[in-house]
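Bumping with the actual sequence this time:
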Amino acid sequence: MDEVCYQMQLGDGRGWQISAEDELRSWTEKFATIMELRACKSNGYPKLIFVRKKEQKGQIEESPCQGEGNFAKELRKTGWRVQEIYNVRFWSRPDVPDVICELKGEDNYLDLIMMRHSLYPIYQGVLDSGGLPFHSGLIERAGRGILLAAPRNTGKSTCCHRIPKPWHALCDEETLIVRNSQKKYLAHPLPTWSNKFTKHSEQTWNVEEHVSLAAVFFLEQATVDTAIPLGQGEAAVSIYQSAMQVCYRYWHNLDPSELRVRNKNLFANSSKLAKTVPTFKLRVSLKGRFWEEIERVLF
C-alpha cells in the first residue's frame, strides 16, 4: 500500500516524519491538518510510523509487558521496547531513530486523544536536547515570543484572547520550547486539544512556526496589573512545575529509576532556561491592560 507522509520540522533544525500506510490515511491527514504539516517524501528525518492494532473477536486484553499477537512478539524478539500511554503503544530501540506508534481503538474522540499522546516521542526528543514542553499560552510581537503560564482555568486562555494588536496569540494551552545550536530558546505553538475534545473546534495551529523566546510570565489573578521579576531559583521551580503539567501525562507508568532520571533532566533544563530567559510574575486584573506591563519590562 502507498505510504502517507508529513513533515514536522523544529526551529533547532531537527525534525520528524509522520508516516502511515494507506489504511490510516484519513487519521493521518486529520492529524497533519490540525498541526498544519506539509506532505513530504522520505528525507532522512526519524519517522513516527503509525499502525492500527488489529483487534480479534473474543481477544482478552493483555498488559503491555506481555506478548500480544504476532506483531508484538516479533518486535520483542528483535529488541524493541514498548511503552504504553493511554491507547498508544510506542515501540522503540536505542539503535533505531524511528518509533512505531500502535493505535488501539477507533472513534472520533479517541482518535483526538491518541493524536495528542502521539507527540510523546517528539516531546522526549526535545527534552533530551535541552528543551521542554510547557503548559502555557504563546503570544508574540515583532517576532518576540512571550509565554503566559498558569494552572488550568486561571485566565491563561482569556489573556491570550484579550491581547490587542500588534500582539498576536499563537496558542493558548501548550507550547514546545527548543534550544538551537547557539543555545537560544525558540517557542513553537501546539494545538489546544481540549477545544478539539469538548468544543469540536475546527481551528488549526502551525506547529512548525517558531519565535524567539523573550520572556516567561506566570499569571496570578489580582486587582491591579503588575509585572514582578522572579529570582532564578523561584523561576526554575515555576518553569519545572509548568513543564511537569505536560510531562505527567507521559511519565505516570515509568519505572521509578527512569522517572528519577527524567525528572532530574527536566529540572536541569528548567534551570538553564531560568538563567537565560527573563521570568516574571504577572498579576492580572479582570479588565486591566496587562500587556502594557509586559511592554514596560521588555520593550
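The C-alpha cells above came from a reply further down the thread. The first strand starts at residue 3 and ends at 9.
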